Amino acid sequence: MKICAEDKLLNGLLRLVPVTQNQPLGPGDDCAAIKGGKPGTLILLKTDCIAEDVHFLRSHDPAKVGWKALCRPLSDIAAMGGTPTEALITFFSPPDLDSAYWKKFYRGLGRAARRFGVTIAGGEMSRQKSGIAVSVMLTGQINSKHLLTRAGGNPGDILFVTGQLGGSIAGHHLKFIPRLEEGRWLAKNIHPSAMMDISDGLGADLPRLARASGCGFKVDYAKIPSRKGFDIRAALSDGEDYELLLAVPPAQAVLLRKKWPTAFPKTRLTEIGSLTPPRPAPTDWPSGWDHFEIK
Q: CA–CA separation, 184 vs 170, rounded Å?
């Protein structure tokens, strides 16, 4: 199964530094998980960044950009089944940007923080020659028995996705709601064998989940829930969906199909395929978004 350039770079960089060996979960998943606090509780660690002309434009409403900056790592906490706690915010500001921009940005960030129970513990700010960039470090917590990762899937597990995919550039990427409530419910009531958030498109993220689980996958293209006005290729490749991708053992899938409509009547859940024994991705499978692919 093809490994994207971003993952190849990460794997190469991690060989150069000491990484977590005696903790529950180190680099390579949606979040790291370390021991700490109350017995049986894990601390989740996540960093995320957004950059001008990559994740947003200068013309976008700064409040919506602030919302997005915090909600992106919140989506990763959701993928682990966790609850967010504290954030550190670091931004880099070009000299042609005044303080009014950052006040609007922080209003949007504050709305997200209050809605999802996050407090801002600190951060940093710096000038740079050009372009806006923001980095968010976020902590969370989860009961160790509820922790979800990408690596637990098995052949025969049923694949589901929440919501709709594709066409995020039309506005969804600035106003999405991270699936925190859904993630916690899944962790406690269904405990998927593997789960992650879809940020680089299903085309990139499903192979990641399958590879981490030592599996292949098969998908019914006709079942992939594409956003209105966008085709299946957009649903696979556009990225910035911030939905959940989960693998569920068949017996648990029966329970999930029964309970989901009552638990989340407004959130779509779609069965799209299954995990298989290891095998190459379909020949027509697109790559999804890759930050480091040379075009």
A: 28
As a whole number, mean pLDDT of residues 239-245 equals 97
HEC sequence for 170-212: HCHHHCCCCCHHHHHHHHHHCCCCEEEEECCCHHHHHHHHHHH
Residue 285 covered by a domain: no
User: Measuring CA to CA, how many Å separate 169 from each of 28, 198, 199?
Assistant: 26, 15, 13
Give all strands (DSSP E) within 2-144, no chain letters.
32-35, 41-51, 83-93, 119-127, 133-143
- CATH number, domain at 76? 3.30.1330.10
Secondary structure (3-state) at 99: helix
Statement: residue 162 has pLDDT above 80: yes
263 CB burial (10 A radius; 0-12, 13-18, 19+): middle
Q: How many CB atoms lie within 10 A of CB 82?
A: 29
Convert the pLDDT of each residue in 69-78 to its tens digit: 999 999 999 9
Residue type, position 269, single letter = L
| Block residue for tokens 């957009």 | 234
* Cα 131–Cα 132–Cα 135 angle in degrees, nearest 5: 135
**Domain enclosing residue 207, as ranges:** 158-276
Q: By the 8 A CB rule, do 153 and 262 touch?
A: no
Same domain, 130 and 191: no
Residue 10 belongs to what H/E stretch? helix 5-14
The residues, ordered by sequence, that sit 6+ positions from 117 with a Cβ below 8 Å of its Cβ are: 83, 84, 85
